[in-house]
Specification:
This protein is 18% helix and 39% strand. By secondary structure, it is of the alpha/beta class. The chain has one domain: Hypothetical Protein Aq_1857, Chain: A. The strands form three sheets. Strands 3-2-5-4 form a four-stranded mixed sheet.
């Protein structure tokens, strides 16, 4: 892969630890965490996450901190360079996406506006 400015996607230790906990508690073997984006919400898009039993042939596979992340091919341009974090507070806990391609978010934080990464950024990440 070589050294590049961008990583397709990375996880903080907190996010990786939480994903490992979820996978360890599963009753069935899991291939990893599938991450994507979908249209919807007040700002235009929202992130999707699901535990995946198997990788799809077109998934981009990223391994970080002992966790395998499967990125939906339709989401690659939107997630390039994103760091996934997990935060807990008195009121809530959940995964947070620190995405350099995100240009706006709604007040609830559930919906975002994301500008796709340029082809130059994609080739730099390869």
């Amino acid at each position: 892969m070589g050294t590049s400015r961008y990583k397709m996607m990375s996880l903080t230790e907190a996010a990786a630890a939480r994903v490992r906990e979820i996978m360890a508690a599963s009753d069935e073997p899991l291939a990893g965490l599938r991450v994507g984006v979908k249209n919807g919400g007040c700002a235009g898009m929202s992130y999707t996450m699901e535990m995946a039993r198997e990788a799809n042939p077109l998934d981009e596979v990223v391994e970080d901190q002992g966790v395998k992340v499967l990125i939906d091919p339709k989401a690659i341009l939107f997630l390039l360079g994103t760091q996934m974090d997990y935060q807990e507070s008195k009121l809530s806990s959940g995964f947070i996406f620190n995405n350099p391609n995100q240009t706006a978010a709604c007040g609830c934080g559930e919906s975002v506006t994301i500008t796709p990464a340029s082809p130059e950024a994609i080739s730099a990440a390869q």
